[in-house]
Design goal:
By secondary structure, the protein is α+β, with helices and mostly antiparallel strands. It is about 45% helix and about 20% strand. Helix 3 packs parallel to helix 8 and helix 10 packs antiparallel against helix 11.
């Protein structure tokens, strides 16, 4: 059954996905707002806020919050992205009441103590430093900055030590009220959940009036460019991005299939050509990164510095090769892999709750997984070829390389091969 969507009087939407026979329940409260909605001065505030609400809320201390959930056999977590912030509880059957109450306190009644905020800025500062010291984190940040230069999508979700320094309990509290406003909230539960119970709890915990929310962000624009950092490492970390379509575009599933064929698995073109045939890289993957109105086709590889230029050329060649229709067997394999990942992902109650919340945020409804699989099956080889040509047409790319200096020249090779 496709879960129904209910809307409370203040605009909060509620989704229930009961799974008969399950002994656990997952609750996800998702705000359709994140780092993309920040201006430069508040960069990283959404992530900092997600940390801060766990320091104390609704009369519970930081320790009380986790102990209350764990005492009932549950787990609590949260995550901040560019376009959404999610609070999650997994619990045993019967744990929905407590989980809903705790998350409601986090979202609506955090303590925001000044001393806690000062300490948490230090913690987030260490998280920022850790990302800078981790090559396969930093290289993706560099690529993102090149792709969406000067825009919220081009800034790191963590922000910078300078940007988070300006947050005070008062200003962060005002940001919380706007970021987690009722109109952007989805309460989504899956597993051992009763719909009537969920609606009563949602009304009790999230049905109160709220402040106006944050407005929509400016449309994203893939501008492209190069970010290279010379560093003494054992291998070069390379990310190559091309402009693609957003999650709401009719070609969304074609993009997913394109990434699968290009570098989604061991049978993919890049894995076979770059690793198996040429031995250029141990790890090489292609992926799609999609937002509401924009997206990118990406390739990540770790390689010897001396092989980076050849790897860049091979990547362009393999992408260009997809302007010709792929064979029936190759397309069928990609479809099977994509559908397999989709259906296997639904075997987790939390994944189902999160997926439903994301669909409601984007489309205002949940999607029938069988109908989605049919959309995947409907993609043609000609559609993939046309999408590849569309991606290549602007001759724009974002290239990030982190590693030994000889590898950095691969950025120019990729750009030149792309525009040739």
């Amino acid at each position: 059954m496709t879960p129904k969507v209910h809307t409370l009087g203040n605009g909060v939407r509620v989704v229930c996905d009961p799974l008969p026979g399950w002994q656990t329940v997952a609750l996800s409260v998702v705000a359709g707002r994140g780092a993309r909605f920040e201006d430069a001065g508040r960069s990283g505030w959404s992530h900092l806020l997600e940390h801060m609400v766990f320091k104390g809320a609704g009369g519970r201390s930081a320790r009380d919050i986790v102990e209350a959930i764990e005492a009932e056999g549950g787990h609590i977590n949260a995550a901040t992205g560019y376009e959404r912030t999610s609070f999650q509880v997994r619990a045993l059957r019967g744990g929905l009441d407590l989980g809903s109450a705790v998350i409601a306190d986090l979202v609506q009644r955090p303590t925001m103590d000044a001393a806690d905020l000062a300490r948490e800025k230090q913690v987030v500062g260490q998280e920022i430093a850790e990302a800078a010291d981790t090559p396969d984190d930093l290289v993706f940040e560099l690529a993102q900055a090149a792709a969406f230069d000067g825009q919220p999508l081009g800034r790191p979700i963590l922000g910078t030590t300078k940007s988070i320094k300006g947050a005070t309990p008062e200003t962060l509290g005002a940001w919380r009220a706007a970021l987690y406003a009722p109109g952007s909230l989805i309460v989504s539960a899956a597993g051992a959940v009763d719909e009537d119970e969920l609606l009563k709890l949602a009304e009790r915990d999230f049905g109160g009036a709220g402040a106006p929310g944050v407005g929509d962000p400016e449309p994203a624009a893939f501008v492209g460019g190069t970010r290279t950092v010379a560093k003494r490492l054992e291998q070069a970390n390379v990310v190559l991005l091309l402009p693609a379509v957003g999650v709401m575009d009719p070609d969304y599933f074609a993009l997913r299939l394109l990434a699968e064929i290009l570098g989604g698995g061991m049978a993919s073109r890049l894995f076979q050509e770059a690793r198996e045939k040429r031995g250029l890289a141990y790890a090489i993957d292609a992926y799609s990164e999609t937002y509401a109105d924009a997206g990118a086709l990406g390739v990540f590889a770790g390689c010897d510095a001396k092989d980076a230029a050849e790897l860049a050329q091979v990547t362009v060649d393999e992408i260009r090769g997809l302007t010709e229709p792929v064979g029936a067997a190759e397309l069928a394999r990609a479809k099977a892999q994509l559908k397999g990942a989709m259906f296997m992902g639904r075997e987790s109650a939390l994944a189902r709750a999160e997926q439903a919340a994301g669909q409601v945020l984007l489309f205002g409804r949940t999607l029938d997984p069988v109908a989605v699989a049919e959309e995947v099956d409907a993609v043609t080889a000609e559609q993939l070829a046309a999408l590849t040509a569309k991606i290549l047409a602007p001759k724009k790319a974002a290239v990030a390389i982190l590693g030994p200096k000889p590898a950095l020249a691969a950025a120019d090779v990729f750009h030149e091969a792309l525009t040739a």
